[in-house]
Amino acid sequence: MVNGLEFEKPVLELRNKIAELREFTKDSDVDLSEEIDKLEARLEKLEKDVYENMSPWDRVQVARHANRPTTLDYIDQLFTDFIELHGDRLFGDDMAIVGGIAKFKGLPVTVIGHQRGRDTKENIRRNFGMPHPEGYRKALRLMKQAEKFKRPIICFIDTKGAYPGKAAEERGQSEAIARNLFEMAGFTVPIICIVTGEGGSGGALALGVGDRLYMLENSTYSVITPEGAATILWKDASLAKQAAEAMRITAPDLKDMGIIDEIIPEVKGGAHRNVEKQAAFIDDVLVKTLKQLLAATPEQLISERYAKFKKMGEFAESKEFENIHT
Fold first, then answer.
1. What letter does residue 31 receive in the DSSP assignment?
2. Is 10 a residue whose pLDDT tops 90?
3. Contact 83, 102 (CB under 8 A)
4. Distance CA 300, CA 125 (A)
5. At what angle do helices 173-185 and 133-148 cross, to 10 degrees?
6. Phi, psi dihedral angles at 314 (to 5 degrees)
7. Measured between alpha carbons, how far is 114 from 161 in angstroms, rounded to an integer?
8. In contact, 237 and 227? CB cutoff 8 Å
9. How large is the angle between the packed helices 56-63 and 240-247, nearest 10 degrees?
10. How far apart are CA 25 and CA 38, in angstroms?
11. Cβ distance 83 to 109 under 8 Å?
């Protein structure tokens, strides 16, 4: 079994069995087509049962899959004439965030996103997709450039969170994130944000203030990782599975709460199964959304963006404790 997750073991084992029978049939005179057809029918039902009934923890595992497509993978599939731009003009170039200018079906756009590595060496170079403050300042520089030249901004979000190390804090990590939130709220060009993997804490939110916020079906978006929440709440990181269920960090939950605008479906088994097909799903959403947002005036964009975020976190007062001091 290659690149399999615990919950999908039965599916992968059955796929392997079917592949073995096909190979055996090809190399012998035995006709096993009837048995293969039965197994494929069984596989179809099993895939439906497994992939349509995934738990929040299952989705966390898929979002973290080592082969899950990265920002550069989607850029390669969705855009043409991409030119990567580097540096924040203040300190250096953070490889955990990539960005630049490109064309989407002939339309000039600015594309920015978190970037993880595929192996240990690249992950070290990319700091495991956890940006330093210069990464967020680079992103902001590119966004301001996009506004100057009236280019829509497209952000891909996939990070466990901003890097929490000493050097990052010394260089103003919190200020850099807060600055991005403040500036993004007032940009006069369309901003589309897509959570493609893990959307963790302020490190994700720093690229997440947009006119539209979408999530891939098996991605997550949360203030903290399930392990971190379990450690704080129960002093036991091994209870991450329970924390993931309690935190409501999956796309369906966040859609129900009005945090995101739409869920982008994934190919069966996760985006890593077919990058081209997954990119096609994102392509459809970008076409539809850009058509809507480009028709709006700058004033409408800012006003609707403000209203969108203002209504998040609405609360209702409880009378349960109103007489506690009387």
1. -
2. no
3. yes
4. 40
5. 20
6. -65, 150
7. 10
8. yes
9. 100
10. 15
11. no
Give CA separation, 145 vs 92, 105, 138, 182, 318, in Å.
18, 20, 11, 16, 47
CA distances for 177 relative to 138, 162, 190, 284, angstroms: 11, 9, 20, 30
Angle, CA of 67, 71 and 77, to the nearest 5°: 90
| Per-residue pLDDT tens digits for 240-259 | 999 999 999 999 999 999 99
Token digits of residue 101: 């200018």
Q: To which H or E segment does residue 266 belong?
A: none
- By the 10 Å C-beta count (0-12 exposed, 13-18 middle, 19+ buried), 119 is classed as exposed
Amino acid identity, position 126: R
Per-residue pLDDT tens for 73-123? 999 999 999 999 999 999 999 999 999 999 999 999 999 999 999 899 999
From CA 306, how far away is CA 325, in angstroms rounded? 37
**What is the CA 148 to chain-centroid distance, rounded?**
27
